[in-house]
């Protein structure tokens, strides 16, 4: 018997063009762009949420395990705070780390209105956000959340992402999260197009990509989860060429991963050296990098009204930056093959600079991280993008960084990149972000800025 087969195109026609049209549409049909900040402020003022720091003893259903000292939930769900021991040729370190093996869903619904794609965005409260409420994906939920381990309400719009029609999926990729604070954490980043009537609840609004791009210029307006989903979408415009072919870039990065030597193992939290635990925190003895603390959330207006939880708090504001140069008319950014203890692979492509300057202020100039001082001392006319954005507010408290895209020159960032660094185009970075574990979460934020502005043909700087 002959089996009838039917070939389909390897690439879905028109997706990039439809996304570009949405990016070039500065106003949507449901809310004016100028009204979006006020809409977020309204939810911030009316959510009635109170966040307060509490001692570990006041955590409800959380406790330090008597045998390991690990911080765990009584249900065995959500996440644990454990210890990590990392060894590299130049040294080793120990630290607390969040272990959350379950894969969450970060999903954005897309729908055409008047021929233009709009995206259903949520005004979502997260306890770690500096301003509580930010623009978030339609669905942002761990498996524990959407299987209701907390005993709360259903996650709205979840059904569109659990078993989507594959022909309506615009992007779907597993992406890593912060390798310095999570142990091999991944989330499913999705954009799913829908047809028919999909009403927006009061906490949701349909926005064009151009409207979201405008919000990316406002401090702490668009949350990390929305940024990473947008970065994974096939948004990059055509480029005339690059300093390195895609094959050469992949070969370089594979070589970087292969040459990096790092060995990590989980260990009991109580046994990590260089850290101390008191009533309110687990912190380094020199108070650098970050600490583990506890918070109480009351009046949340979420799937559950209130809860307590441990949360990671950095000790200072970060600087996350891409150095940018134009070669033969094509923009490039300087990516870093960065090693972090929590990555599933040894390294991922990161921004040129990704550091908290305060952690290195005690070091002489020659021992400070590469390119950090060049970014910090850049003249204002070279800064093409500068916005303070916070990291994931469900696990990190007041974890914000100034995200920058800075024009540089041969004197500060030579065309012949030093070991561990490589010039890549936004298109190459967008291509790699369509696959798992190539582009880290901080680089994906800046990629979302680069590609949405380029697709909408709007300047990076105002």
UniProtKB/TrEMBL annotation:
InterPro entries: EvaA-like, EvaA-like_sf
UniProt superkingdom: Bacteria
Coiled coil spans: none
One Pfam family matching this protein: Hexose_dehydrat
Boundaries of every dTDP-4-dehydro-6-deoxy-alpha-D-glucopyranose 2,3-dehydratase domain copy: 34-232, 247-450
Protein name: NDP-hexose 2,3-dehydratase family protein
Organism: Streptomyces wedmorensis
């Amino acid at each position: 018997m002959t089996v009838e087969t039917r070939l389909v195109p390897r690439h879905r026609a028109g997706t990039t063009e439809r996304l570009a049209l949405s990016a070039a549409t500065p106003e949507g049909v449901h809310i004016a762009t100028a009204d979006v900040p006020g809409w977020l402020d309204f939810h911030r003022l009316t959510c009635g949420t109170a966040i307060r720091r509490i001692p570990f003893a006041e955590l409800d259903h959380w406790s330090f395990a008597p045998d390991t000292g690990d911080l765990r939930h009584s249900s065995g769900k959500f996440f644990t705070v454990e210890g990590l021991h990392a060894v590299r040729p130049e040294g080793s370190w120990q630290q607390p780390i969040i272990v959350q093996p379950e894969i969450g869903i970060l999903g954005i619904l897309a729908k055409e209105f008047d021929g233009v794609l709009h995206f259903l965005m949520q005004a979502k409260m997260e306890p770690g956000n500096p301003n509580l409420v930010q623009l978030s994906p339609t669905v942002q939920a761990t498996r524990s959340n959407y299987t209701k381990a907390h005993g709360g309400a259903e996650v709205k719009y979840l059904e569109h992402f659990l078993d989507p029609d594959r022909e309506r999926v615009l992007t779907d990729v597993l992406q890593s999260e912060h390798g310095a604070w999570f142990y091999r954490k991944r989330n499913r980043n999705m954009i799913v197009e829908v047809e028919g009537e999909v009403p927006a609840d009061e906490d949701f609004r349909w926005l064009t990509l151009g409207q979201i791009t405008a919000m990316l210029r406002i401090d702490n307006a668009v949350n990390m989860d929305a940024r990473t989903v947008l970065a994974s979408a096939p948004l990059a415009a055509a480029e005339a060429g690059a300093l390195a072919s895609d094959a050469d870039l992949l070969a370089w990065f594979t070589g970087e991963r292969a040459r990096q030597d790092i060995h990590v193992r989980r260990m009991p939290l109580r046994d990590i050296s260089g850290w101390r635990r008191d009533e309110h925190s687990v912190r380094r003895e020199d108070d650098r990098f970050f600490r583990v603390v506890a918070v109480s959330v009351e009046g949340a207006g979420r799937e559950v009204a209130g809860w307590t939880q441990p949360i990671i708090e950095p000790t200072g504001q970060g600087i996350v930056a891409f150095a940018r140069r134009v070669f033969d008319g094509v923009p490039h950014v300087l990516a870093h093959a960065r090693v972090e203890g929590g990555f599933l692979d040894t390294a991922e492509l990161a921004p040129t600079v990704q550091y908290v300057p305060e952690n290195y202020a005690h070091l002489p100039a020659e021992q400070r991280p590469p390119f950090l001082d060049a970014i910090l001392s850049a003249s204002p006319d070279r800064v093409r993008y500068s916005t303070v954005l916070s990291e994931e507010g469900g696990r990190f408290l007041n974890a914000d960084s100034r995200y920058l895209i800075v024009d540089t020159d041969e004197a500060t960032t030579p065309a012949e990149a030093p070991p561990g660094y490589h010039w890549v185009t936004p298109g190459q970075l967008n291509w790699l972000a369509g696959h798992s574990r190539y582009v880290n979460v901080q680089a994906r934020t800046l990629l979302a800025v680069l590609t949405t502005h380029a697709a909408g043909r709007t300047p990076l700087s105002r």
